[in-house]
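Structure, all two chains, one model.
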Amino acid sequence: MRTRYGSSPLHLLAHLAALALAAWALLQALQLAGWERIVLWLVGAIVLHDLVLWPAYTTLDRLARRGRPAGWSNYVRVPVGLSALLLLAFFPVICGKGEATYMRVSGQSWEGYAGRWLIVSAVLFAAAGALYLVRSRPGSSS
Amino acid sequence: MRAPPGPFQPRFWKSPLRGPWLTAVLGSILLVLVGIVALTGFLSHLAYQPDLGRNALVDRDVPFTTFFDWPTGPSWLYALNQGLHVNVGLIALPVLLAKLWSVIPRLFQFPPVRTPAEGIERVSISLLVASTGFLFATGLVNMQYWYVFQFDFVSAHYYAAVVFVAALAVHLVVKIPVALRAYRSRGVLAPLRQSLAETVPEPDGDTLAVEPDPPTVSRRGLLAAVGAGSLVLVTANAGQSIGGPLRSIAFLAPRREGGFPVNKTAAGAKVTDALVGADYRLVLRGGPSELMLTLDDLRELPQATHTLTLGCVEGWSTRQVWTGVPLSELARLAGVDDASELSVGSLQPAGVLRQATLARNQVADSRSLLALSVAGEELSRDHGYPARIIVPGLPGVHNTKWVGSLDFRA
């Protein structure tokens, strides 16, 4: 069994059990209105991460490091990464996507998100710059 | 057959940090975090008490619904549950991205499938990545009021969570031995003691680079950067979950306005002057005869005041001082002393959440009120004037506003 299948019978049975449960949940989801959009979002999650997000940050990182001394790049990629992470998670508030709905349900205005994201990003870049300055002074330990 | 160029070529991969130990550490941290997120998610489903009345938002015949009565104490129970669900989800996001980064060479393995076992494993991994991405993406956009997905969020998020749990369980069966092997051969924490100069590739594993670049960061440095990512995300949001002065620190939280946030305005719910004006009557049913009470009648009944937290499924909360008539008092007045259920109806003309059914323990709790005022002032129209429900530990939207009828069941 092991030679032809490639693993133990436990491996096969565990997968069959999990896939059966997952198939039940997917079939339930396919009965909902807008099921084609549910499928789109499930497939889109893989495509966006594996074929857009990961290639984009890997390529940017390789370009940024090319020809530069080691130890230089972390001062840039950490604050850039943190700023990008905030944008990724809070894209809807930063870009005002939910504004109309939010104002209708809460009666409140929706202001300053993009500005606060930019200010926090500026603080992150400035802090990394200050750290670089301190550590690269002659006589500094690193 | 030769492998295509690019990431399908082993020489494409350059990171000296990738390896089974790093994946095991990221996977272990992620498991704890998503464990909390999944548990609080399913608990939230139970807190809506889908077995009662028309409470069920997901098909009420689904299994694994109710195992116990949702408790009424502490009053911040639901706020804590949802605060954890949303904020631990944010903390998990950078760990998830790092974990995927650590194993992504496997995606481009060539040939993609060598045995039937690898094939079936790839199917379950696809389901795991798809459902995880789906849950994070829909959760994030939903809490930010961007309903771009145009499907029923609650049901889709629930079924995706079932897919996630199934796919994660089998992933753990397959990968826990791999992680334990990495911990045993390299030590659980030993690689964290290595500085950048001491950082070398792991000795074996299927994600190792064949020609690694020199390291630009140590393993502990990478984990610290991931931790910094979690910290900025949770700082941007957690204040809305805790409330009070911390709310204003939450610089990207959707609910960062001060005071007492309104979940849904009267105008948004189409509650008009005519509905809540002088002709307002509260209908009490369940006893021998129907009772109609005016707002003045309600004001003359015995009142109680309690400080209770209102927690929203979206992960924000507010703590207020509520005054009103205890629900147990109204049950007695209706003629149902020990009500097993209470169906609350709103005057709000439409919407799934214009009614909610409460359980015996929730009606019986002395702190469960039909509130007429909050913070010492009559309820505002947007907060449910003339009367709204407040039950400790209940999901926010089940604290029905603009209450028009109370149906007690013996």
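The helical segments of chain A are 2-5, 9-29, 35-65, 74-94, 99-106, 113-135.
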